[in-house]
Each structure stands twice: as structure tokens, then as C-alpha cells.
Amino acid sequence: MEIRPNPLKSDAHVKERRGRRADPRLGRVLRGFAHFPRALPIGIFVAIALLTGVGVWAIEMAQKDSRRTELSQIATGASAALERRANANAAYLRSGAALLATQDDVPPSLFRTFVGQLRLDANFRGAEGIGWAARVDSDEIPEFEAKQVELGSIGFAVHPLPRPDQAYAVPVTNLQPLTDRNRRAIGFNMFSERTRRIAMLEAERLARPTASGRVVLVQEGSQDTAPGFLMYMPVFKIDPAGGRRLEGYVYSPFNAQDFVESALEGELPNRARIGLYDGPIAPDNLLAELSTGETGGESLTRQIAIGNRTFTMEVHSLKSSMLSDVAVIVLLSGLVVATLALAIAWLLTRQAAEARQVIGILEEQAAIRNSLTRELNHRVKNTLANVLSIVSLTRRRATSLDAFATSLDGRIRALSATHDLLTQSEWGTTPVKSVVEVEMAPYALGRDSTVEMDGPDVELAPNDALSLGLAIHELATNAAKFGALSVPGGKVTVDWDLVSDSLVRVRWKESGGPPVSETRPRGFGTELIEKIVAHELRNPVDLVFESTGVRCTMLIPVRTRSEFMIRAKQVGKTN
């Protein structure tokens, strides 16, 4: 014979082994998700969102480093371009100073020849030109003006004249190319203006090209126009004694905006703004600005040496969007993935919750079905035991088959009537009054005798109601045959009251019927009440046959539902 393992037992062992190996912390987590089903999808969404945020942050940090590196490269290239242009201009001024230092005089024709050889238009871009400013003592100004008019400078006049504390003037004598714009500067005494004077004295002291601070060129014709600066190179004459005397300055005027644009032509990318300042960064010190958009990103500064003067260059990256393109793509992708994961997890969690609810309902129904089966089995056994006892006692007391059948039929009908009451109450508690009424109904109507019932509302357990119904049936049957219900004018009184919270007393009393003989034989009804009913009620029954009528007192327990309903206990455990 083949022996097969019990699958239910095997599954139970597998589950038990798995339960022993399972991490208790995992169990707590799973129970937590079971109690809070929304926590899992929200947790998945938050986790993916956090990972996306970390990715976006990392991308932005990398992009920021890249922008800083790019900005540093731009600043390095721009500062080198500006210094190259300034050094080229300084070289022109040095060569001009070397040439003019060898001449006793600087007539306009000589200066024009010198500038023409420099090919100014091609190589000197960004400057207004190149000029010569002679040093003129204050007492020699009229003579100098007359000489310049004689050399072809129509209307030449030094302006403004030197102050009394100034020994000389440095008027613009020649300026090439001599455009209408540059003609405005001819005769201007540059030594009269503080910023220019400081630069010229510094150039004289160092004997090297020196740039002035922020000024507005005379050529501009207005103080509200774009600022600029000048670069001076002194020209000295060596006297026989070995000393040197300042003869004047070769200089170049610069419109700062033109200077920066020409120097950085092709150097400035589309992702930066460059500002050139005379000294510290401040709005009043701004010389020139190149920009292709609104700033707001990274920035850095560089110090630039132009003509022995330090300028500050500020480089700004252009204002970009909050996030780079790559970061935006990652962010959107992460949000899409997180949303899809949230939706999927939500659906799965919802299905799992619904499945758990269905399983719970099925388990509860199975528990109720099992408890009902056990309860029904219990009730059927009790009922069959009662029926067997009734059959046994009826058979012993019956004198004929008809008497046996009649007695058995009535008693089983009494059980059936009480069962109907219990079925209506779903085998819950049944009122005492209902049990008495259903058993006394055949005798209370259509007879000359009287049936009175009175008592409080008291609920009985199913088995106790069955026992009471059998007892009332036997007493009523006996009264109908031999007692108060067998004659007109007879009276049966059934009353009940609560002896305590857990005990009710039911009294049966007959009056007005035929006298009861004290020597009457004991019948089946007497034994049924005193044995079966008393046993079921767990209390003795006081049954007395008085000459005035039968009197019976029964004590019936009043029990709570949990004491007699198996289903109630089972449901209480599962809940």
C-alpha cells in the first residue's frame, strides 16, 4: 500500500519552518504595510524622487564646476588679449618717444610722417589715434600759440590756461588722424585736469608708458558720454651737462568701449559678460562692458596691468535656467518613473488589500460555517437525545400502539414548535413568554377554560427553551386530559419572575379542575419533567399534585450569549 503525505500537514510544516527562519523585523514591516497600505506606494515614490533629486544635484554640481572652468578660461583669454593690445600701444608710444627725442622740434609734417609709417588704421585699432603734447612754460604760451598758427594750425589756442601755481602747460599739439572729432582736442591743456596730470607726472617719474584713470575724452564733447583713458610716454632731451628736460608726451587717447571690443573681438563667447573697471568694482569705476545676455551665474575677477596701471576685469557667466538641460531631462524622467511606480504600487497594494479582505471574509465565513456546523451538530445531538428519551419513556408507558403514536406525535410536535421559535431567533435567545404562548396556543383558544400568563421579559438559551417547551407541553397535555383544561371553568396560571440576574422561576398552577387523586400512578409526563427537564435545566423541578390542581415550579438559568453559542466564541476569537 502506498503511503502519501498529507498535503495540509506538509504545508503547515513548510510554513512553520519558514516562520522560524523569517526575520521578525521583516514581519513587523509587512504587518505595518498591511495596516497602512498607502505607505508602500508613497515610500516607493519618495525613494525614487530622492534618488532623482540626488542625481540632479550631482549633475548640477558637475555643470557648475564645468562653468567655473569655462569662465576661468574665458577670463584668462580676455585678460591676455587686453594686455597684448595695451602692450602693442605702449610699444608704438615708446618708438614715437625715441624718434621725437632726437628732434629739436616736432613740426606737424614730421609727426604725420611718423604716424603714417605706423599704419595706424591697420595696427592701432581701439585707440582714437596717437598725439603729441608739448611742454610749454606758462610765460611762453603766447609765443607757442603764434608758432602753431604759423605752422598751419588755424585758431590754435591753449585752454584752459595754467593756474598761477602751475609752471607749465601740456596742450595737445598734434593728433592723428586729424578728424573732426579729434580737432576738438587740439589746444586742450591736459595738465590742467587732475587725473591726466597725475598720469603724466607718474610717466615722467618712471620714464615709461603710463595709463591714466577713468576720464571722458575731450573728443567726446560731453561728460555724459562713454568714458575712456589715456596712455602717456614722456619725451626727454638730454642737455650738455648730462641732465634731462621734459619736452612733452607722445600719447594715445582710448575710448574704453572701443578698446575692449577691438581687443576681445572673436575672444568673447556667447556665455559670458565682461566688465572693465578702473580700480575696485563699482558702478562709478566702470569703463567698458561687453555682454550678450543677462548675468546672474558664476563670476570671477582678474587684475590687468595696462600702462603701469592696474585695472580690474570682472567676468560673469550669463544667467541660465534653474537647471541644466541634462538635469531637467533626468528630473522629468525621474518624476515619470516615480509616478508610474506609484501608480503600479498603488494598484498592486490595492489588489493585495482587496485580496486580504476577501481572504479575511472567507476565513470568517469558514469559521462561522465550522462553528455553525459544530453548533448544529450539538443541537441535533441534544434534540435526538431528547427524542430518544421521549420514545423510550413513551414506549414503556404506552398500553397500545395508538396510544404510543399519539403521545409521541404530541411531544415531537412540542419540540418542533419550540424549534420554530429558535429558528426565528436564529438559535439565539428566546423569550419565556414566546415559549409559553406557543405551547399553550392549542389550549387557550376555543375552550371554556382560562389560561393566564404573566411575567417580565426574560430571554432563555436554546436548550433551556426546548426544556421549558417540553415541560409546558406535558403540563398542558395533562391538564387537557385530567386537569383544569378538561372541564369548563378551569383555570391555568403560568407566571414567572427573576429570582436573580442568572435565574428565572417559572410557576404552573391549575385551579377549578377535577380533584386530583393523591394515589394516582406516575405517568410519562411526570418522569419527563422530573428527569429529563430537570437534568437539562440543571435545577430540580418541584412538581406537586394537590387535590385542587397540579402545581409545578421550575428554576431556569438565564445565561449570556457567549455561554451557549459556539459561533459567538469563534467569532470573538477571530475578531
From TrEMBL:
Chain spans, region Disordered: 1-20
CHASE domain ranges (all copies): 102-265
Principal localisation: membrane
Presence of the UniProt keyword Oxidoreductase in the record: no
SMART domains noted in UniProt: CHASE, HWE_HK
E.C. number(s) listed in UniProt: 2.7.13.3
Residue ranges of the TM segments: 39-59, 326-348
A molecular-function term among this protein's GO annotations: ATP binding
GO biological processes: signal transduction
Source organism, top-level taxon: Bacteria
Subcellular location: Membrane
Signal peptide interval: none
Name of the top EC class for this enzyme: transferase
Catalytic reactions of this protein: ATP + protein L-histidine = ADP + protein N-phospho-L-histidine
Record's keyword terms, sorted: ATP-binding, Kinase, Membrane, Nucleotide-binding, Phosphoprotein, Transferase, Transmembrane, Transmembrane helix
Record keyword Metal-binding present: no
One GO term describing the cellular component: membrane
Protein name (Swiss-Prot/TrEMBL): histidine kinase
Taxonomic source organism: Croceicoccus pelagius
